[in-house]
Write a structure and sequence with these properties.
Layout: H1 32-37, H2 50-125, H3 131-149, E1 154-155, E2 167-174, E3 183-188, E4 190-193, E5 196-199, E6 201-207
Parallel strand pairs: 2-6
Antiparallel strand pairs: 1-4, 3-6, 4-5
Amino acid sequence: MSTQPQQPDPVPEGAVTEPEQEPEQGLPAPGAAEARGTGEEGPGPDAAGGPAVGEADEKADERAAEHAAALAELDDRWRRALADLENLRKRHARELERERAAERARTAVALLPVVDNLELALSHAEADPGSIVEGVKAIHDQAVAALARLGYDRQGETGVPFDPARHEVVGVVEDPEAEPGTVVQVLRPGYGEPGRQLRPVAVAVAKRE
């Protein structure tokens, strides 16, 4: 028996032949596409923890909104505090000016009787020149009393130790009967106590021989 392969029958002239189909390589088996669509494969990398990530974003947004609200409240309180401080400064300035005006008025009221008596003494000077001396003395006492009422007593003692808080040395004299550093002469009286003086007492003090 011959082992040679049989030759195909010759194709008649003019006949149309169909190309031979070769087996396709790498095509998925039937039903593979449906299997992929049904979700039988494992979850993707973004599927794990998806809801948890969304909740974290929502919480972050809530915290940001809370921080923004707190910042806005602090800014409002800071602006209100600045406005209150400015109002307090203006009110204090007005009150200080009122106190100064009231103090000036009290001082002027205390000096008004002195001015009145000076005018009265001058009006009688031509008629009785000798009376003006007594009038000036009375006016002097009245002015000293007015300063005392304002808190500035007259200071002009002699024979007391020199005190730099009260006295201002304008001269030094030799006085054998006085202790060195003692006030022996008042050249100009002072008014007020130490720490609240209109002016110190101008004095001459004794020195050692």
